[in-house]
Amino acid sequence: MASETYGLTPEIQQYLRDLSVREHPAQVSLRAETDTMEQSVMSSSPEMGNFMQLLIGMIGASRCLEVGVFTGYGTLSMALAVPDDGLIRAFDISEEWTSVGVPYWREAGVEHKIDLRLGAAGDGLRERLDAGEAGSYDFAFIDADKVNYPSYYRLCMELIRPGGIVLLDNTLWNWDVADPSVTDPDTEAIRKVNQIVFDDPRVQQSIVPFGDGCTLVVKLRD
Q: pTM of the prediction?
């Protein structure tokens, strides 16, 4: 997660926000509350929320997966973008953090679109596959514990239909991915998933230097 794009001056960051983001009042309020938290850097930025809404609209997505919720700004952004009968199936381990977003989901009138599942995301994704939901989702956003990114990617790719999108956040990881002296488990996991995506013949992909880096993956075929 990244609450702003790394490497930009404050002036450019503000210009980007002013001219590329349209926020619902509930998004503004949720972001303001999240900004008071010590872990606020973990929240999706307004630019990322706007980017996800753009992608969802472009492919006409109605069924979405979210791996990693935090206080639910990204969840709210996606829920605002899908139709009234759409679904955001969201996975997180923290009731404390996710509970922050619930009143704002309700305020925006989108709570009925959000199915929040507390527990290990990998287990939750496998349960959806066991329930026969392979290929039944349009969009997935992965922004959770980095060491499990390779597994999350593989599972989401099974659940996403051809023509759908998987978006992975933090794939430049504060630019540490390009520094061979950095070998901690999180950085190594990000390097691994980036290579997995690049080598995947089913997809077209691009690493976008946006926020902390995000990888946009279009699934071309099963």
A: 0.93
